[in-house]
Amino acid sequence: MPESxxxxxIMSTMRxxxxxxxDPVPDELINKILQAGQWAPSGGNxxxxxxxxxxxxxxxxxxxxxxxxxxxxxxxPRYASSAPPPGSDAAPYKRQHPAVEYLTDHYHEAPVWIVAxxxxxxxxxxxxxxxxxxxxxNMCLATxxxxxxxxxxxxxxxxxxxxxxxxxxxxGAHSYAIxxxxxxxxxxxxxxxxxxxxxVYGDQWGKPxxxx
Length: 212
Ligand SMILES: Cc1cc2nc3c(=O)[nH]c(=O)nc-3n(C[C@H](O)[C@H](O)[C@H](O)COP(=O)(O)O)c2cc1C
Known about the structure:
The chain is an alpha+beta fold. It has helices spanning 7-12, 27-38, 57-81, 90-106, 133-145, 160-166; strands at 49-54, 112-119, 173-181.
């Protein structure tokens, strides 16, 4: 189902869509996604998020150079040697590699990026991200609900200083995620996750939760 208003359908089919068409996305849809982001909670309702909408290909290309460098330096080798995550096995995990590589090479071709930034001061503490990732998830869900594709990406933070300078961020503001958004080439599908019973405990860490 490409579009949906059923939140459980949306959550359970919101795959990381790494193959995106370069076709334009109407501003009206991007505005809905941004609104969904702004509806998120933030600590003390401070709303110190700032959302950059990037369409300029030159700016995206400059960032893609760092994104690719990080793939070559660490992400690519790690993917090649790591075990499949829970709920996956060798075959689907192997299929994920070319998709990750595809997004790496075509990052800047996604027609729109939303960069989620936070005015979090010079030395953000351990909870800083909690006031932006709710907004990021809201935007991912809205994107999926509209039939558009995206992937929550944070790899660029490996060169965070350099990338934030490309975006013109002032001191005390940092980018936390880049959402490359476009019409998906593939289909939304069922997610691969491990059994719920493996991650839910009852009353004490390690004790089975009888409610499942
Ligand atoms: C904090 C975070 C950072 C991520 N960064 C990247 C990234 O930089 N590049 C990328 O291709 N995917 C990135 N992902 C996507 C994950 O790889 C993806 O959510 C995971 O493999 C599950 O994929 P699925 O939802 O399609 O099953 C990130 C996800 C999260 C939650």
